[in-house]
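Page 47, continued from p. 46.
Same chain as before, 140 aa.
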Amino acid sequence: MRLHELKQRNYFELFPGVLFKGYGNEESIYIDDESFSFITPAIQKGFESYRAFERFEIGKSQWHSIIKELLNLRDIIDRKDRIRLKAYISTFFWQESVLEWKLEEYEKIDVLKLMRFIEDLIEWIESQLEDNDVITLIGL
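Result:
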């Protein structure tokens, strides 16, 4: 998404490199909170220190772990395996009522659109890691 599309919304910024300047950078990509929530379990599994709405400078090896988890999540979604999905996301959405609500959200979303989002994100991360040792993740 473009930055101007995110006004009055919570969002995440991914900045290629170490962020030495303020937020809202042209070279960054932005993901709205709702979309990011679908990949949060994969982010946390690939980078265990992850906490929502904080800033992290994540190194290449950790991004490769995140990519592996994003691919795993994509596979689970593609197979429409509710049992595996529930087990996978329960590490982040551990409260039963929230877990059930999020499972319903996964079932309602356009699966092809979600899988494309994951693929586009992986592609962007991989391209940025060619020139950068770090990608900064900021929850705003």
